[in-house]
Amino acid sequence: MKNILTIMLATLSIISLAQTKPANPFGLVYSDAITENVPGKVNIHPVTYNLNGLEIAANLYTPANFDPSKKYAAVVVAHPNGGVKEQVAGLYAQRLAELGYIAITADASYQGASGGLPRNVDKPANRIEDIRGMADFITQHEGVNADRLGVLGICGGGGYSLAAAQTDKRFKAVATLSMFNSGVVRRNGFMNSGVSTIQERLKQASEARALEAAGGEVLYAADTEITDEMADKMQFDLYREGHYYYHRTHAHPNSTFRYTMSSLLDLMEFDAATNMDLINQPLLMMAGSKADTYYMTNTAFNNATGTKDKELFLIPGATHIQTYYVPEFVALAMNKLNEFFGKYL
Which of 85, 180, 196, 269 places its Cα 20 to 30 Å from the Cα of 94? Predict the structure, then answer.
């Protein structure tokens, strides 16, 4: 009897381990992700580095047959709001490495596996600095030609990439996918649906800051757990499809949409579409033709009067979230990125 119990307990332990063991050893949740580093193929290298006193967690992707004695073009990839490096940003970084680039994507400061307290501070200045920090790190990495550096920003990372590239001329080519203008949406609401509550929300953010300063509780916005039923009733594709992407099909334990309420003091004064005339680098802005966020890309693109080389590329039939994972839409985006970075990097 004792032996039978021992066997049963051991079996249960094995089952438990099997259930909790991540499907991908690198924590990647996108399709066709790297599962092991094979010589001669694209490899992934989890790395950490210091940025303004915080430890940043990043994944560096190197191309097949990487030779550190050679010099490669490199691309910094900035993840969406609420996202982490293991999701869509990792997918595009891996695809770029498959094209021969060294690519890096990092969790934002105070988010994901990167350091910073309180958790989920979400300030534009931090996100912009994160992108520059990735550039600092990758341009010092072996095999990288610092004069051939590009940036790809996805969703909220797209807006912050535009802001970073406006002044940081290390970025020789600038690309965005499904750009999301975080500050404008936090202030006015999606499609201006929250204009009437701006002052009320600013008051809440101010009170949250005061509470933090007094050593009290850190308050969070967007901290409600959404059910499938709630998502199905959402008006906008972005949020409805985003729920299923981030919470179901491509969920990652480090990915969360919540952010400190006090972050709104900074978010609500930010607009990625301002100062677009400072971008004099080649610019590619991509969006799904059915994306309800397209108006943000269109505004920023039209404001980019300082560059002679700019292109707006619509991915036929795609919504915002579908550009993150649907193979045919990812392929179309990657073909355009291959053309764009191939020409300018």
Answer: 180
